[in-house]
Every structure is written in C-alpha cells, then in structure tokens.
Amino acid sequence: TQLTSSAYDGATIIYWISNSGLLIKVEAADAAGYSVDMEYTNIYLNSSISDDKFDIDKVAPGVEITDMTEA
Under a CB-based contact definition with an 8 Å cutoff, are residues 31 and 9 in contact? Predict the structure, then answer.
C-alpha cells in the first residue's frame, strides 16, 4: 500500500506499507526538489532487547538529559 501526504509548502511524503502493516519505505521531497528516501529492511517484531541498550550512561556517557515534558 502506498500513502501520499502533501504539505502546504509543496512538500510531499510517500509512505509504503507492507501487506503485514509495517512501514517499509518513506520518500520525502520538498518543493525545491530536494528529497530523502528511507527504506527499512530486516524488521523484527517483539525481538528480545536487553535493558542496557536503553541505559543512557552506557550508550552515550556524559550526555546531559533535559526533561522537556513540562515545557
């Protein structure tokens, strides 16, 4: 399935959805003709990911985190 979205400034985004409902490709272009294509492959659902992959101190030591939820 292919879905197209248009913005007020002439930009367009095209989304490709697989038969199983996964987003597999995005193509975005602005009115000036610049474009970006992103394609997603080797998608695994509900795979096991260890908690340390989300530990910011291990992933990016020294990074300052700003809580913007109250902004």
Answer: yes
Cβ neighbours of residue 27 under 8 Å, at least 6 residues apart? 13, 14, 16, 35, 36, 37, 38
Instruction: Tell me the residue ranges of DSSP E strands in 1-71.
Output: 2-6, 12-17, 23-29, 35-39
The one-digit pLDDT tens for each residue of the chain (71 residues) are: 999 999 888 899 999 999 999 999 999 999 898 999 999 999 988 889 888 888 888 878 888 888 899 86
pTM for this one? 0.63
